[in-house]
C-alpha cells in the first residue's frame, strides 16, 4: 500500500446539529494510507455525555478523542483532514439518536464514535447500523446485544464482561492464600448488563471455589441501599461486586461507610471510573477497585506517547499529571480507527469494515483483533483494573512493572 508523506494539517472540531462553532484550536489531521483518491476530509460524528447523570466521564472521554486526533496528524499514512463533529447527548439515549441523526444529515460522515455506557452506545450503534456507517465505541462491556443482534457495522475495542470477570479473579489472587476471602455478595443493577455481569461473576467465582452468599437487585437512581447493606452484613459478605452507574455507586458507598460493616474488598465497575468518585467521597472511596478498560501504568502500544501528549496538553499541575481512565479508553478507540483506515484500501464504508474485520490492532489497552460480533477475540484483552488510593487510580492488574500493590482489606 503506497502513500505520499503528508504535511501537518489543521484539526477541525465543529459543533454538530446546533451549528455553533466549537473549534478546539487543536492541530491535527487525518486520512490514511489506503485512502488515495478520497475526499479532502474524513468526518467523524460523535456524542459524549457532557451533561446529565454521566457527565462526570464525558469530558474525559472527549479528551481521549482529542488527544487521539492530535496524534493522527503525525502519521505518515495521513493524507486528509479530519473533522470531529461532536455534540452533548445529555446522558440520554434519545439525545444520542437525535444528535447523531442531525450530524449525519448535515455532514458527509465517514465514521461514528460512541458515547459512554451501554445504553448510550447501543443507541449510537442503532443509528450507524441504519446508515451503514462504521461505528466504534468503548465504555461498554455488555456482550448480549452484540451476540444476539444482526450488527454489521458495530465494533467495540474494549474489554467485555468475560474479561472483567477474569480480572476480578486475578485481583482476588493477589490476596495471600491464607487471607483470601471467600464469601461473595453481588449487587445487581436492574438492567441487561447488570444481569449479564451478575451471572458471569456468580458462575465464574463459584467455579473457582468462592461462595456467592448474596445476589440482590436494585434500580437505577436508588437512594436507599440500607436493605442491600443489611443483607450483605447478615450474610457476612467479604467481597462486594457491582456495576452501578457513577451516581448510584457513590450513594451506595456513602451509605456503606455510615454502617458498622464494610466488606474486605469492594469492586464497583463503572461507578468508580470518574474523578467524581473521589471528589464526592474522598477517603470514603479509598481502596475501592474498578475495571475501566485502561488505567495509568499499562505499558507499550503507545502508552508512553499518550502520557507525553497528555502532559503537554493538560498536565500543568499535579492533579493532571496522569490522565483519568476514560481518557485512555477514548485514545485507544482513535488508535483502532487510525490503524483500520490505514489498512483499508479506501475510505468507503465497506473497505473500512473489511479492515476492522481482518486487522490486528495495537492500542494502549492491548493487542487484539475483532471476532464475528465486533468484540475483541476471547482471551486477547486483559481488563486493566485499578484501585483508588488517596485520590489516584493506581493499576493493580495486569501486573506490569508500574503496577501497585493491592490494598487489602479496605479497613485495616
From TrEMBL:
The keyword Lipid biosynthesis does not apply. Pfam families: Peripla_BP_6. It comes from the Archaea. Residues 41-371 form the Leucine-binding protein domain. Keywords: Signal. InterPro entries: BCAA_transport, Leu-bd, Peripla_BP_I, TAT_signal. The keyword Signal applies. PANTHER family: LEUCINE-SPECIFIC-BINDING PROTEIN. This is ABC transporter substrate-binding protein. It comes from Halobium palmae.
